Amino acid sequence: MDYFPVFLKITGENCLVAGGGKVALRKMQSLLRSGGRVTLVSSELCCELTTLSNENAFVWLPRQFEPNDVEGCRLVIAATDDAQVNQQISAVAHAHNIPVNVVDCPELCSFIMPAVVDRSPVVVALSSGGGSPLLTRLLKVKIENLLHPAYSRLAELAERNRRRVKAAIGDAVARRRFWEALLQGSWADMVCAGRDAEAQACLEKALCGDAGSTANTGMVYLVGAGPGDPELLTLRALRLIQEADVIVYDRLVSAGVMARARLDAEKIYAGKQRSRHSLPQNEINHLLVELACQGKRVVRLKGGDPFIFGRGGEEIETLMEQGIPFQVVPGITAASGCAAYAGIPLTHRDYAQSCLIITGHLKNGEVAELDWKRIVNPAQTLVIYMGLHGLRTICETLIRSGCSPNIPAALIQQGTTPEQRVITGELESLAQLGEQLDNNIPTLIIIGEVVSLHDRLSWFGR
Ligand code: SAH
């Protein structure tokens, strides 16, 4: 490490900023946020600095820098647009042994300022040693996405209760376990959901020895993993995947999504391949209950959205019956993911005013009991899940029910992934096109005039 990372206390301390532009403004704002007493030396101010000056947020010396400006300062920041002045400030500060930062000039600095993710009192500081500020900024965005804004309140709540917990649990190891369970369990989730009062009440109950009221109870998160591209995970899904003790996942969950899980998280494959169920549904339901009863944070990860042909409803019914706390996190369903990545808008002013999602799963070789005559509508896009196996029967049924044999149609395989394949044709030739495809690869069928837009609008993989 080229720099020694520290967090400096500057509350009430004198700090000097030289410069009156936008860069000086940013430095000023972070000094003020940390409670510094700032003097700013510059003949001119940008308009935001003028506003702050009018609010007496800092003392303004409306002139050029003078060497004795640094006297009594805890730190100095040079942010003028004059390289010579910046150099002079650096030299004077060094001579007085005062830490100095010269913006964008690491060789003149005795300290550098990190990119900051502020969840005060939790603060993450990032630095590339001045080598690549852009990289640190990009990393900062990633970390910001990971750290729910509620971490601020979580830390405050923990701080507020620290002494009481210490008094109630004398043994240091037991105390650490107690905090670990709280901060990683459903208690922390309560705070993230803004239920601070409830969280406080749970903590108090737990301190009175009511173990059942704390994070020791497991929790099940029914999470939508989206159609394949891990970048399509919601922020919430990503956070839960990264925090899970156990992930029970099915076949549609892509390897890219699973790669986002913690290495040491337990991963249980619950399968489900067409007519080759790895774990029967009721066993999955009971597995979730059992894992939660062991006090684990369980993520039940499902392709797409858990409530769209995902049996999510059945799984949470069992949890409900058994009194296991749970949450449902929606995901991008195959229809919207595949359509977007194939350049096929599901609705379009000129072609389709509605969109219908149906299952094409056959029961005993027959298409589902759907009102096919009502399904057929030239101004509506029809999206069929699980329809490849029964494609011929579906197409024949549609045409028999009045659908035009020439309506455009598409088959999308492994949508949103690098392996995505889009095959387009007309309804009457679709079954033949589908015959070349592997039945075990997830395939979505889109039928409707909007498919004709694919040639023009397709963008992914080009
Ligand atoms: N809950 C899921 C759907 C589960 S049913 C969701 O909301 O997307 C399984 C069917 O979804 C598959 O047979 C296929 O028709 C469709 N599907 C899911 N992911 C897909 C993908 N990446 N590409 C194409 N079809 C997909």
UniProtKB/TrEMBL annotation:
Annotated NAD(+) binding lies at K22, V23, S43, E44
Q: In which pathway does it act?
A: Cofactor biosynthesis; adenosylcobalamin biosynthesis; precorrin-2 from uroporphyrinogen III: step 1/1; Porphyrin-containing compound metabolism; siroheme biosynthesis; siroheme from sirohydrochlorin: step 1/1; Porphyrin-containing compound metabolism; siroheme biosynthesis; sirohydrochlorin from precorrin-2: step 1/1; Porphyrin-containing compound metabolism; siroheme biosynthesis; precorrin-2 from uroporphyrinogen III: step 1/1
Listed EC numbers: 2.1.1.107, 1.3.1.76, 4.99.1.4
* Positions of the Sirohaem synthase dimerisation domain: 150-207
Q: What residues does S-adenosyl-L-methionine bind to? A: P227, G303, G304, D305, I308, T333, A334, M386, G415
Where in this chain does the record put each Tetrapyrrole methylase domain? 219-430
Keyword Lyase: yes or no?
Answer: yes
Query: Where do the record's region annotations for Precorrin-2 dehydrogenase / sirohydrochlorin ferrochelatase lie?
Result: 1-203
What is an example of a GO molecular function annotated in this UniProt entry? Answer: sirohydrochlorin ferrochelatase activity
Swiss-Prot/TrEMBL catalytic activity: siroheme + 2 H(+) = sirohydrochlorin + Fe(2+); uroporphyrinogen III + 2 S-adenosyl-L-methionine = precorrin-2 + 2 S-adenosyl-L-homocysteine + H(+); precorrin-2 + NAD(+) = sirohydrochlorin + NADH + 2 H(+)
Q: Name one GO biological process term.
A: methylation
Q: Which keywords appear in this protein's UniProt record, sorted alphabetically?
A: Cobalamin biosynthesis, Lyase, Methyltransferase, Multifunctional enzyme, NAD, Oxidoreductase, Phosphoprotein, Porphyrin biosynthesis, S-adenosyl-L-methionine, Transferase
Phosphoserine PTM positions read S128
Q: What does this protein do?
A: Then it catalyzes the NAD-dependent ring dehydrogenation of precorrin-2 to yield sirohydrochlorin. Finally, it catalyzes the ferrochelation of sirohydrochlorin to yield siroheme.
Q: What is this protein called?
A: Siroheme synthase
Q: Which organism is it from?
A: Candidatus Methylospira mobilis
